[in-house]
Each structure stands twice: as structure tokens, then as C-alpha cells.
Amino acid sequence: MLPAECSRRLVAELRDALDSCAERQRQLEQSLRVSRRLLRVWEPAETPAPEPTLGPEINEEAPSSACPPSPQDLKELELLTQALEKAVRVRKGLSKAGEGVKVPSLKSGSASTATKASAPPSTSRCTGSRAPETKPPRGVHHPWVPAKDLPGHRLLLVGDGAHMGQGAGANKTEAGLRDQQIVPQAASQVPEAFTLKDKGALLRLPEAFRKAASQNARLWAQLSSMQTGDSADAAAAAATAKTQFLQKMQTAAGLPGSMLSTAEVGRLQKACSMLRLRMREELTADPKDWMQEYRSLLTLEGLQALAGQCLRRLQELRSAVVEQPQGLWAEGAPRAALPCGGGADPVWSPQLLLYSSTQELQTLAALRLRVAMLDQQVHLEKVLMAELLPLLREQEPLGRPWLALCRAAHCLLCEGGQHFLTVLQDESADRLSPP
Amino acid sequence: MGRRRRRRPDPADAARALPEAIAALSRTLPAAPSPEIFRRAKFDRPEAAPALWRLLFRVLSPLPADGALASLALEAQARWVKSALRSQGYPRRALVQLPDEGSQGGRELLLALAWLLARGPLPERLLTQSHVRLGDEMPVCEALASPGLPAPGVEAEGCVDIRHLQWLTGKLRLRWRNLMAGQQEQCALLGKIHSYTRGCHSDRSLGHLSVTETELLRDPEGGRQLLQLLETENARLEAALEWRRRELVFWQWMDTVLDACSPEDSPPMFLPRIPEPEAGVAGLLARELQALQEELREAAEARRAAWQATVGGHGPEWRAARRALQAAVAQDLAALQRSWEQDEGRARPHGPHRLVRTEARVPGGPGLRAAEVTEALRAREACLEAVLCQLQGQCRQELARLAGARPGLIWVPPPTR
Asked: N or C: which end of chain A has fewer CB atoms below 10 A?
């Protein structure tokens, strides 16, 4: 058994690591849920009254809000219905022209993949409902009802054409089944259920959102330029006033100012890792001529000097820390929440990461996680070393408990907790060795 | 709006300036109390204190406020704020001495807030933290996930067996594996969504929609909420801009607040230094730096020795070349040093980037390329693996030494994989 303090610290560290992992997992699962749902058939967000069978199946997350369709929506729907009627007429014409018509589908090449809506019921419904309905149909709040500027019917034709290709072998999805269930009550609605794959390119962001988003970008840009362009008088005066205020606070203060501030420690940590990175570069490089050799030598010596400087600075800071007697400050000061790199830009600015294939993205993401995991592992290794090695050194190596501890420590420290070594007691050696 | 006023300052203007500045501050900070509270705080009125404690808590906590944090009792929040301020180097002792139950000290709290505002771009940082992300974001570099607040339910555990630690380690490994598998799936889904929505975005440089944007189209209710968040953020951004324009008068006012406080006693006589636990962050770092220095020393000495052995063979051009090399290396190292000394790491972009799927191979266009980031990550991966290996090697040596002190034992290492 490990002593209490040591136990507490180690368990706390491991728990932290587990918690941060769990948090990532939680976020990932949420993203997965959302993404999976987007790639399935989209359910309409509202359930109008006369269709009770649909109630529980509709999107359980968003509360279905029944709001009457606006005149605009009705108008659009009318346009849409007319377009569909035309589409049906043209489609009939096309089907007469021949089965082998190649219709460019929207995204994926094959028409057979456009199986989401079942063709036969949709056709029948389409022909059945010529007149625009006044009852709020299912699809009315689909914002992807094409805006007037889109050549809506042409695109729909393409979509419909894609459905042509499938015959009786249509895979009916749940949406298709549902459609069939409600056929008797069906209002005239968009017959094909929406999938991102087929009709993703039709989507358009709503106007209000676009406005807000562009204003958002504009305001951030303004804020950013205000940060960097500090030449304005007002800004300069404010900066001076702030510095003076801080100084005044310091001199009127009751506590010593120099503290082992988390920022300083962060900076030194960064220094350490940058030095190490650079050292690795130098050590793995292969000098081709004596000049490179000499340069490498100078660099290593320089790095050594810098490391020494950092160490001295750290030691200075630590010795300057005057801890307040316990009880004055809350227990457990919050650990440094270092932002990425310790020096993140305070003002957000749009930054893009461009990728060209799913493979590339997956590689990137996997690497990122691996680096995070390694980072955590290194940290845990250091903590374990700091706690366990002294313990082993102190204890008298008597008997089994120490051996067991040693073996377990070896497993944790040297094998990442994965493999154990075996300890054999050599009886014969004991007997032969001098007393 | 930006036109500079040239007329003589109107006294009515001056009288309005401070309340407007404070109003702007109140509008831009999250969960900030009304401007009236600020004024009351100057006069140390009791109703000001709780509101300011909560504000400080909100402002200092590294994670955006969620239900769990916000529901912490005022007392707990006050204690946490004190601790957080101290760890940032806050100089005033009076704050520490305020009662935890949070009913007093409006003026001190106001000073603390002003101190935080003076030290850095606080409103901007908070806005960045809570910025509504419209794209699919991927952080480019990973910082060690910060534990943030100590979990309220943490009990002081008794002694544990080392096997418990082994079990926890195994659990951790499993979690990472699951995480990685899930991540791969998510990337595949993202790739699909991005390619299916190509051509939809009004912003040509983006080209396709993100999950957030597509989701708002699928779910209009969610879309309305998102829009609301965006509009709130816009309001806060405008308030931040206004604050920046008007803040001078606030600082002039804070001077008066500081003067109203009685000066604190000089620092107490030498306090006994409680040594920081060796496993503290600084302790670890010190050991790391020491180890690093040692490694560098060994490597440098070896090379220096090798160099001395061959130096005789170099011609007269040696002296000039040497000077040039020394200068070059000095510059190199100075740049390296700058990279951690300066606060802004502008050389490498940090933070989350919006993922954009594109076929374009425009070099020098805006945005990072995935290939570059991958390369950088590989380098970092290699470095970390080396560090881990080296640490494990160190442990192996140490344990072997300890075990070797005890004769009669044979250590059979596990088979190398």
C-alpha cells in the first residue's frame, strides 16, 4: 500500500487524466450524434395536428412547434407544387423517350443510391395532388424549399430523374414506410424526403443568419484592428493610465509582488520543450562538412547555456515565493489553465484549415489525438517518477512487500502499465554467497 | 461613429462619459452586474459585493459557465476567486481578508476587477472564449488539457494499493482507444457533409457548409437559438468596441477609488517559507530542466572533444568562417529564446481552425494546409515518444540499481514486443 499523501496525489492525477479523456469523449459523441443525424433522412421539424402517427417519430430532440405557415411559405409551396407537376409531366415525357436517359445526379454518380424516398408512392402522390393545399403540409418549414432565384424546377427534375432509375427494387427506408402509412391523409407535400447526399447542394443559409454572421465577422475584424493599431491617442492614453494604475496598486500593496506566477512557469515550460526539440534536431542531423559540425557544436553549447539560464530563473522564482500560512488562502490553487501554447491571440480571427480528402483529415485528427495522449503520458510518467522512485529508495528492501512494489513500479514506469517482469529468487546464490 | 470630436469638451459630456464607459463595460462582460452596482461598489455598499464576487468568478474560471459551476455557492466561489487571483500575483492583502460569505468588500472587489482589466485584454479574451463557432473546428496544437476547477466532490482518499493505479492506467488506455476510433468516424462523416454541401455557402472562400450551419437548416428551432447567440455576441462585440473608445475615463475614476482605500501595511516580516511540494509543477519543471541541461552538457562535451581532435586540420579561412558561424548561431538562439519569451506566438497560428474541404492547391492562399499541420504534428509526436522512451529508460536504470543492491534476485524483463 502506498502512503496516504502519495496515494492522494497520484490518484488525483490519474483521475484528472481520465476526466479530461471523458470530456473529449462526451464532446465527440455529441458531434457524432449530430453528424449522423444530418446524413440520414431529414425529418421535418414540425408535426401538424392531423397526423398523430408521426408524432413520436419526429425529431425527439427539438420540440415540435406548430406555427402556421406564412404567406410566403404558402407561395413558395405553390411554386414548388407547380414545379413538381411540371416535373412529373416532363418525366412522363422522358420516360416515353427511353429508359436509358442519363440524368446527372447531384452528388454521387449512381441513381440507385437515391433510394431514400420510395418512388412509387411518391409518383402516385404527386399526380394525385395537383391543387395547392391550404392545410399546412409537412414540408412547409423545410428551409431548403428553393429560393426564388434558384432554377428550382430544373434541379428538382434532376432529382426526380434520379429516382427514375430505380425500379421495384427500391429500398424503402423508414421514411418511405412512414410515407406510405400516411398516404391516405397526406397533404400535398414535397414527396421526396430530403437527404444531404442528394440535395445538399440546394441548401441556402437563411438571410437573417447570413447578415448576423457577416456582421459578426466585421465586428471581430474591427476589434482586432483596434488591438493592433494602438496608435490612436485615446488608446495610448488608456494604456498609460493602466500601467500607472497597476504600479499604484503594487506600491499600495500588502503582499510581495513577485510570485511564482503561472505565466512565468508556463513560459519556462515552453522554453524547456523548445530547447528539447531543438536539441533533438541537432542530434539527429548529420553534419556534412566541418562547418556544419562546428555550427552544430556551437548550437548545442548555446542550448546548454540557455537551459542553464532557464533553470536559474526558475530557481530564483521559487526561492522568492513566500507562502502564506495555511488558512489564509483557499486550499488548492487552481492549476494553470494554459491556453494553447501559452500565448493565444486574445482576439479571435477566422483561421482556416484546408484539407483535400477524408483520408487526410483522418490522419490529421489521429495524429492530433496521439500527440495529446503522448503529452498526457509524459506528464503522468513524470508525476509517477516523482512519487514512486523516492518511495522505493527510502524503503528498506526487506522482503516481499518491497519486491511487489518494485515490480509494480517497474510495470507502471517502464512499460506504461502494460507488461510485467518476473522476479525470481535465486536460492542457490543465497546459499553460496558469504554470510 | 469614429469621427473625432474637435469641439471643446462639454461638461455634460464629461458627466456622461463615465456612466457610459461603465455601461459599455457592463454590456460586454459576461454576466456583469448593472452599472449602478459599480458605482455602489466604490462606496463599499453591501449589495455590490455578491454581484462582484460572481462576476470575478465568471471572469476567472477557465471554462465557460455551465450549470455545475454557476451553482457553486457564493462562499465557494469567493474562496476560489481569492485563490485564483493570488496565483496570478494579485498584490492586495485586503482582498484575502474579506469574509468568504461574500457580503462585504465591494470596493476591494472593484479594484480586483480593475486590476484584471488593466493587465490584459480581458473583454476580448472572454469574447474569444465564448465565441459562437460556426465552423467545424479543429485545434491545431494541443495543450495539456487543463484540469480547471477542483471537482467539488473530491474526497481525501486513504491509502491505495499500487494495483489501483495500474487499473486506472489501463482504464485510461482504453478510453484513448475508444476516443481515437470515434474520432475517425467523425472525420469520415465530416468529409461527407462537406462534400455534399459544396457550393452552398455564401462565402466563396469557404465553399461548403459546416455541420453547425447544416444543422441549423435541418432544425429551424436550433437555428433560431444559434441566431440569437450570434446576435448577443454581436451586441457584446459592439459594447467592447465602445468600451475601448471610452475606457480612459474609467481609469481616471479607478484612481479615485484606489485613493479612497486606506493604504495597506507594509509586507509582514519574513514569513516561514513552506516548501512547495516536490511534485508541484515547478518542481517537476526544475527536474526536467536539470535533466535537459545534463543531456546537453554531455552531448556538447562529446562534440567539443571530437572537434578539438580535428581542429588542427583547418586552414586560414577558419578564423573568418568561425566568426560568421558564431554570429549565425547566436542569432538563431536569440530567435529561439524570443519564441518563448514573448507572449504572442504569432509565428505559428494557434487555436481552433475552421475545417474547409477544398481541392484547390493555391499556394500562399489563406489558411493552413492539412499536410503542413500533419508534418508538424509528426515532429512533435517523435519528440514526445523520444522523451517518453528516455524517461522510461531512466526508470529502468534506477530500478535496476535499486534491485541490484539486493543480491540473489533475477529480474526477467518482459519480452520485447
From this structure: C
